[in-house]
C-alpha cells in the first residue's frame, strides 16, 4: 500500500472495552434511579464520543436530564471502570510489535477523552508503540470530522495519503475519507450498521496481523 505511518482507532479496533464502558453507563443510570441496559445495547452506542454516549443513554432511559448535567457523574464512573476488564483483540500486540520493528510511526486517534488513553495503553502493555495520542477532547472537533485524523498525520510528519487509518466504524470511515486517508476496517469491534464490505476500505481484516502483508 506504500504506507509510511499508521493511525489507529482505539475502542473496538485495538481494545475491547465495551464491558467496562457499559458498566460505567449502568452505574451512572443506577445513580440516577434509571434502569440498567445490556452490554450489547451499549456496544451499539459506542463510537461518537462520551457526551453523545451519555445523551443516547439518557434518551433511551426517557430521562429529561441533559448530558451536561450527567457528564461529571459519568466521568467518575468511567474512570473507576476504565481498567476493570479491557483486553486487546487477538493479534494486536504481535502486529504492533512487528509494525514498530519495520520503523513505521504510529498514533492513536480516538474519541475517548485523552486523559483516559495513556493509563489504558499502559495497563495493556502497548503504550510504547504510539508516538502520539489524539483524543476526543484534543481538538474542538472529534471524529467523524477529519480534523483529528489530519492532526494525527501532522504529528506523525506524514501526508494523509501516506498514512493508513485502522478503525471499526462509520465514524472512522467518514473521518478518514474526509481527510483523504486510506482506511482498513476490522470485522470485529463496534461497526453498528456499517456494511464493511461495501465501505470502500483498502482492506477489511479479521486479525490485526493481516495488515503486515500490506504495509
Short characterization:
By secondary structure, the chain is of the alpha/beta class. It has helices at residues 18-31, 39-43, 50-61, 67-81, 92-101, 117-124, 147-156, 170-179, and strands at residues 5-8, 15-16, 87-88, 106-109, 132-134, 163-167, 183-186, 203-205.
Walk me through the structure.
The chain is an alpha/beta fold and 215 residues long. It has 2 domains: 5-16 and 86-213, 3-Layer(aba) Sandwich (Rossmann fold); 18-81, Putative phosphatase, domain 2 (DNA polymerase, domain 1, Orthogonal Bundle), CATH 1.10.150. 39% of the residues lie in helices and 13% in strands. The strands form 2 sheets. A 6-stranded parallel sheet has the order 5-4-1-6-7-8, covered by helices on one side. Helix 1 crosses helix 4 (67-81) and helix 3 packs across helix 4. It is globular. The termini are close together.
How many beta-strand runs?
8
Q: Helix-strand pattern, N to C?
A: EEHHHHEHEHEHEHEE
Structural class: alpha/beta
* CATH topology group of the largest domain: Rossmann fold
Please give the share of residues in helix: 25-40%
Number of discrete helical segments = 8
- What's the end-to-end separation, in Å? 6 Å
Mean pLDDT: 97
CATH class placement of the largest domain: Alpha Beta
Tell me the Rg in angstroms.
17 Å
User: Looking at this structure, what is the CATH superfamily of the largest domain?
Assistant: HAD superfamily/HAD-like
- Beta-strand portion reads 5-15%
The CATH architecture category of the largest domain equals: 3-Layer(aba) Sandwich
Please state the overall shape, judged from the principal axes of the Cα atoms. Answer: globular
Task: Flag low-confidence runs.
Answer: none
Whole-number total of structural domains: 2
Strand order of the largest sheet: 5-4-1-6-7-8
Amino acid at each position: 500500500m506504500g504506507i509510511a505511518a499508521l493511525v489507529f482507532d482505539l475502542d473496538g479496533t485495538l481494545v475491547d472495552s465495551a464491558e467496562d464502558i457499559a458498566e460505567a453507563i449502568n452505574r451512572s443510570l443506577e445513580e440516577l434511579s434509571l434502569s440498567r441496559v445490556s452490554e450489547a445495547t451499549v456496544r451499539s452506542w459506542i463510537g461518537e464520543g462520551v457526551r453523545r454516549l451519555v445523551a443516547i443513554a439518557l434518551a433511551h432511559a426517557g430521562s429529561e436530564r441533559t448530558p451536561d448535567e450527567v457528564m461529571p457523574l459519568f466521568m467518575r464512573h468511567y474512570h473507576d471502570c476504565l481498567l476493570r476488564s479491557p483486553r486487546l483483540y487477538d493479534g494486536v500486540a504481535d502486529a504492533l510489535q512487528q509494525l514498530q520493528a519495520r520503523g513505521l510511526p504510529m498514533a492513536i486517534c480516538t474519541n475517548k477523552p485523552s486523559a483516559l488513553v495513556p493509563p489504558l495503553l499502559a495497563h495493556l502493555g502497548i503504550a510504547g508503540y504510539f508516538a502520539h495520542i489524539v483524543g476526543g477532547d484534543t481538538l474542538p472537533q472529534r471524529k467523524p470530522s477529519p480534523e483529528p485524523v489530519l492532526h494525527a498525520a501532522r504529528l506523525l510528519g506524514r501526508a494523509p495519503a501516506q498514512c493508513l487509518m485502522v478503525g471499526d466504524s462509520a465514524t472512522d470511515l467518514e473521518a478518514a475519507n474526509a481527510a483523504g486517508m486510506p482506511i482498513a476496517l476490522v470485522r470485529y469491534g463496534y461497526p453498528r450498521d456499517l456494511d464493511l464490505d461495501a465501505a470502500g476500505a483498502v482492506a477489511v481484516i479479521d486479525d490485526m496481523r493481516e495488515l503486515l502483508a500490506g504495509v
